[in-house]
Amino acid sequence: MKNLYIVITDFNGYTQTLHCLEALAVSQFQEFTILLVDHGTTDTTKIGLAQDFPHVIRLEGSSELWWTGATNLGIRTAIERGADYVMLLNNDCYVTPNTVGHLVKLTEAHPDAIIAPVQRDWQSGQITSISPSTCFLLGFSTIAGPKQLSAKMLSQDVIPVKLIVGGRGALVPVAVFNKIGLFDEKRLPHYGADHDFYLRARKQQISLNVAPHLFVDIDAHSTSQASNPATLRFFGFMHSLTSTRSHRNLRDVITLFKFHYPVSWLCQLGVALYFVRYFLVYLFNRARYVVW
Prior knowledge:
By secondary structure, the protein is an alpha/beta fold. It folds into 2 domains: 4-218, Spore Coat Polysaccharide Biosynthesis Protein SpsA, Chain A; 229-291, no CATH class. Helices cover 38% and strands 22% of the residues. The protein contains 10 helices and 12 strands. The protein has helices spanning 14-25, 44-52, 66-80, 99-109, 151-154, 174-180, 193-203, 234-239, 250-260, 267-291, and strands spanning 4-10, 33-38, 57-60, 85-90, 93-95, 113-121, 127-129, 133-135, 140-143, 159-160, 168-173, 207-218. Strands 3-2-1-4-11 form a 5-stranded mixed β-sheet, sandwiched between helices. Strands 5, 6, 7, 10 and 12 form a 5-stranded mixed β-sheet that branches. Strands 8-9 form a two-stranded antiparallel sheet. Helix 9 crosses helix 10. The mean pLDDT is 92.
């Protein structure tokens, strides 16, 4: 039996962490160890774990770790403990009962691949991501792709994709980390590190896949500051360009485009296209929001 470690990060979000752990508790497959990286500033998670899930291994980290540093802390610890596979699971992601076990079986059948479940919205149950991709040349770091499973997709165990989004149930063999390294916590501390990691994996001929019969439900209550720009006043919009908590912040977007723009010396063009589109989308949606 391969050693599976599930790495969860928590920044003062025990309500969601509780749901995440409850989902794992009813998993049909239980041969795993949970490492929870608590990098918040209160004792809520520490106390909650001791009361509700004493078997979960809590790793204490600084609040300055952000998502990337916290995730890397969990991965390093898993590897030190002898992990063969690491599942990356944000605390706002709730796997369905059959997901973990089937992902393990699929990874055993595809030992050189990264495999993730299909992402759904926790409240509506609607699929939010199946096979995302990118088009950096035109300023798109993420293209959502189809949101319905076709008969062809359902006929396959895994679907090759060009990108996996986030730490949302992706199962990564430790051999992949040994080959390409961990997430880039120095240059991409919070947002963009997942894109960079999976794109680096593709460049190293590591197959990215989604399992069309397996699901993870995403609780979007606490996501990027810029996830719904229509609700932002102009000050909030400007803040979203600088805040580490926004996936639209200039530093991370520029860094990501520098790494992955197909013509490196023209990466500023891709960045400009990205932010012009964001500004226009903000103006359009904000106007509709205010009028309606």
